Fold:
Amino acid sequence: MIEQFKQWEENRHDYAKEWKKKNDGKVIGYFCTYVPEEILYAAGVLPVRVLGSHEPQDVTEPHIFGMFCPFCRDCLAQGLKNRYKYLDGLMIAQSCLHIRQAYTSWIKHRPVEFEKFLCMPHKVQSPHSYEFLTDEYKVFLKEVEKWTGKKITDKALKDAIEVYNENRRLMRKLYELRKKDNPPVTGEEVMEVVMAMQMTDKAEHNKELKTLLAKLENHKSNREVGSRLMILGSEDDDRVFINMVESCGATFVVDDHCTGSRYFWNEVENNGKDLLASIAARYIDRIPCPTKDWEERKRIPHILNMCKEWKVDGVIIMQQKFCDPHELDFVPIKKALEVAGIPTLFLEFDVTVPVGQFKIRVEAFLEMIGEEDLF
Amino acid sequence: MVPEDKYPTEQLKSWGKAKEIRMKFYQDYAEAHDKGGLRWAGGAWTFDAIPAGLGDDVYPITSEPYSATIAFDRDLSMECMEATEVKGYPRDLCAYMRNYWGSIITDKFAFGYNKDGEFVPRFAGAKPIGFPKPDFIWQDHICCSHAKWYQVVSDLEGGIPMFTVDNAVGPSSEITDSKIKYVVEQLKDGIKFLEKTTGRDYDDELMYKAIRNHFVSTSKWAEICELNKAIPAPLDEKSIYSLYVLGTLQKAGKQVADYYEKDLLPEVQDRVKRGIAAVPNEKFRVMSDTQPPWSFLSIFRYLEKFGCVSVGSLYTFGLIGQWEVKKDGTWGAKTIPDVEFTSRDQALYEYVKYELHKPEWQHFYSCHTKSDMMIRIAKEWKLSGVMLHYNRGCEGLSVGIAENRLALLDAGFPVMAFEGNNADEREFDEARTKAKINAFMETLGAK
Structure:
């Protein structure tokens, strides 16, 4: 059912190159989900998220100090290995320092036609962040217009917002289906869909997603659901790990990742504000990355609510090694989950994960969750 | 062979005063409640002129220098970090942060009173006292860890009112009214927070004075560092660490502004005039980068064996110092704004506009900007090479350091990279670093 998504995800570079040829358009790579893709899409640009390849590599050592997260090094390796040679532009929105290094090294050693560091505010809990970000968008929009030579009209922006919002609504529907006692899709399948979402034209993704949802409407999965798990933490697109866990008698029913639900959870609401202000509000109000989740920790109630609504039996807290922002959050998150009676398993990820060792720990965790059934 | 002395040297006359100011800072904080005053906690970069408007009896403790003090006290530091690890926090997090949290968890302040009743560090024989809980938190956020640091402090202390200002608005080359206004509006909200939290009325005049002090401290510190362009260098980096720290404690404090302007600056000017060297056998000049491994400052003395002086770093020059490009194209102290403060809004605007140029804030946006500044220092301070501390204890200042290395090499400066940790001694290999220094000095031509 998800073959098309899988094909897109696995052949992401071919997809982007073909899109370029077919649409005579520009492709921009981006590093963080705080990039306002709607503005780029309105200018006829295809934004594609730069992700790693989960292969050991030896090209980033001279560029990024080894104490920074493996994900940022894996992303930079893709650039240094010329796998994204087709990119016309590269950008990042202000989030964590780790991934910013992938961007700054990339633009120096593999220059592109258009580069942008967008100053996304950190204090999203400040009422002043809306106006500030809107002003940053005004500058950005002009820069994109200059780069592409195309005027971004209000109509184009509205259309882009609608395409993106539809994508978000459809993804929420897909996640809703996972609330069922017998979810019609596995966590691994959903990961394919979410990843493909970040590297394809949203209009095309929407079309395929509608077909998928129609198929899933009455689909009955005959696999054992097992323990219902949530996975949360740093960036995570490790399908091998997800597959391993789901083959141990469990199903991931929900997640809180920037490569998962956090990417699409909130829509742009046009409440009579101007369009850029509406887009800004979406990125300010979205479920925050830990770098922006202060002074109040707003992610914790969201996670607890997800656990409740998706009837989660246990949570796997994963994090990319050395990921400071998540390291600063997982202690209170773990505590909050334990207070709510939800068991957790903490695992530290690298570019590749030790599947064998993790399997033993996951099996022990699942055994613990299923204790009542055992005895 | 140790090179022979070429220059006269003498101790800094104002050294004792710098130590007194530092000790009084911690004593004032510890004793604030005894005198009916208030205590607050925040980072070294926080806009500390703002809480100054609450009164003259409001005393801060700044996180980074306090944590460095703990790091210097090896036994206490180990106890603090282990206590933090027991609470579940990973040991690759900011080492300052872990020392600081540990001081709260173990309830051990790094200072106390000796048997004669004098206020001294624990390692100097103080009887331990508990960590004095702050009344409120006043923080800034540009590094991923800044605001989060104090979320945890508040958790550990059972809840402390907290306000954090987002100052990460982009590089100084792209400053706009909108960016300044975003920070100014947050500061105005912060003033309301302070009034509500403390129940005190806010005095704008006190804030104006503190902003003036801030201008003086940060500009005069840069002027002092600029004097180190001289050969021989009047100051060495090990001494600079004990002097720049005053700016990290309370840059908006009158005692700090006065010390830099009226004591240290004239003295260093006089040293340059008389050719007084920090290192009398100066032959090679290097700079470092990021915080040093605080428990191992002896490596800077080790350099002297080769006739090598570390004249400073972007870190010591630009963490607090404010700079600008002068007419002749060289780097000099930032001109103090010639403005009268007439309203809260206007004063805050000037304060923020000035502060957003801080050199050590720029690399958060681009490591290449930092490389440019480092190459400038290497040229203008006439350096023979650079020692880069790949510091596992501070992601904020180590960000982009590998690119800095490449850029310095491209610019023709020999670079020695050594890995360590500013505040976790378990991650510093002294013998290996000294061996690296030996090889590096040989490269520079030392015999």
Chain A touches chain B through 44 residues (CB under 8 Å). The first helix of chain A runs from residue 3 to 10.
